[in-house]
Nitroreductase (Reticulibacter mediterranei), 148 residues
Amino acid sequence: MAKTYHAPLYVRLANVMMTTLLRVGIKVVGFKNYEIYLLTVRGRKSGQPRSVPLALLGRNGKRYVACAGAGDWVLNLRAAGEAVLTRERFSEAVTARELPPQEAALVLREEVRRGYPFAHQFGVTTDSSLEEFESAVVGHPMFELKRK
């Protein structure tokens, strides 16, 4: 089971700013040109929509989202299995599939080699072995997002 993650204050403040920009339709480009989307998912307890800005990973025409731990949006996405991605006033419904550690490790390894700016959160480098990547993703859920 993934550990619960509580974002530091500066991350929460940045999320508020990014969410506001994305809601009004301003294009936001993240680190190393990773596209930033607003992911909206239904709350598992309240049923109310909850939104969080995320940098999507792209590999072989597929889109993935990785996280530092099992925060509320991760638990909500697991429960709902679907979400809405918004970027520049365009929205699309997506389904989410949590990747098993072996598959997530391959995706993460490729992203780290491409210069993934958040690799330090996973404790891996470009020189890490596949086994190190597999152990790193155990506490860091990764989802594949597919258009409905």
About this structure: The beta strands are 36-42, 49-55, 57-59, 62-66, 82-87, 90-98, 142-147. Residues 9-147 form a domain with the Pnp Oxidase; Chain A fold (CATH 2.30.110.10). The helical segments are 9-23, 72-80, 101-113, 130-137.
